Amino acid sequence: MKERVILHCDINHCYAQIEEMMVPELRHVPMAVGGKSEMRHGIILAKNDPAKKYRIQTGESVHEAYQKCQDLVIIPPHYEEYLYYTEKVKDIYREYSEWVESFGLDEAWIDVSDCLSLFGSGLNIARTIQKRVWEEIGLSISVGISFNKIFAKLGSDMIKPMGLVEISRDNFKEKAWQLPVGDLLYVGRATLKKLEIFGIHTIGDLARFDVEILKRHLGKMGEIIYWFANGYDQSEVARIDACQEVKSIGNGITTPKDIKNLRDAQSVFYVLCESVASRAKEKGMAGRCVSIQLRNTDLKSFSRQKTLVRATNLSDELMEIVTELIKNNYDFSIPLRSVSVSLSHLCFESEKVQFSLFEDEMSRQKRYCLEKTIDQIRLRYGFGSVKRCSMLLDEELSDFDPKGSHIIFPVGYF
Amino acid sequence: MLYKRYVDVITLIDKQGRLTPLILRWENGVQYPIDRILEIRKAVSEVGGCGILYRCRIQDQERKLFYEKNRWFIESTKP
Description:
The complex is a heterodimer. By secondary structure, chain A is an alpha+beta fold. Chain A has helices spanning 14-22, 49-53, 62-68, 79-94, 116-119, 122-137, 149-158, 172-175, 189-197, 203-208, 211-218, 220-229, 262-282, 315-329, 361-381, 395-398; strands at residues 6-11, 31-34, 44-47, 73-75, 100-103, 107-111, 141-146, 164-167, 248-259, 285-296, 301-312, 336-348.
């Protein structure tokens, strides 16, 4: 088989850089993009280079960031702009190949194997793309070039900003193997801990380890990361017109005040469930697995899930299961700070199902029609036009529109 | 020092959908015909923002006019 040439392009601290591009004065002051602190969604989403000097970190709260640097300028996120400009960047990528796969807003893989004779070597194409994005859109990107997606991503992470790293078959043992194993895609905190027990600290350690032992202790993922480390990743870059298959539908929120009891939680979950159910119905899908994620004020989080006999996309049914999950798993001894719900194991709602003898199918159909109608009313007259009475119990907690303000996050690699 | 100024521009859209800026209208109502377009390319502006750059000559001065999303701005010498 012909050797593939894959680029991975990463817009350096994307949100902050787009803000700087739009308002160049921000380049000279410590600046971060963050949520509104009065609504408590206040975490730092991205920061610029001057802010990095104050050791401000992505993901920490706005409050913590202010303590490190009092003059920090916090800009609320402008998602519309980020979507627009990152799409412009990807338009440039798409001029070079029809195999462009997005990984979140700011990252993308490009398979240029078939256009080397047109545009020159992988390194050349990478250099041209980098130069064009800088001159035409004013954003710096780091590019990794390699023979598979995993090493291409490693390469783009190595030098920031404006990095250009080629990891080839001849040099991957020197370049990639010396990196800490945590840099590898899909080696998260939990996996990292397990690997440390085996004395695996670098990607090279992992590549030389016994795959059978990894498999026994880490399961399927153990084997996969072993192949990743050895450069055997064969996964293809998706075509630009390929639709991402939906694997789960979820919504979550950090509430403006703490959730102290079951009733508070229900107010919030009702809104979330309605949004999830409505989005599922829009896609013509239903799910069999309902899971909730809870995070308390100590910032400890956990999730619980339940698998159903029959797939659903009704908000009432979702809510029932969510309530049951909360009741069985949380006592509210510590208030909750953020919650989310998601629906997975999706299938098409038009799939044939076995009706239950003990369930009233007619009333289920009626409820389905009712919810669809409510969705249509909301589409036309706004989210607030029809509300459940229970949402009026605590408007501070339930006054948000997760569906309308939904933002796309990177999806999994598989 | 240059400043970002959004301006009214009388524009010709031809049959192919190409834009040609013809006259720039300043806020005080004064109109400045664009004498010549020297260059058209995608570019980022040093005053912030990016789009399609029309490098123009207006009354013997060279100015950078940008078409950003759906409106025009100029790199102005006056604030």
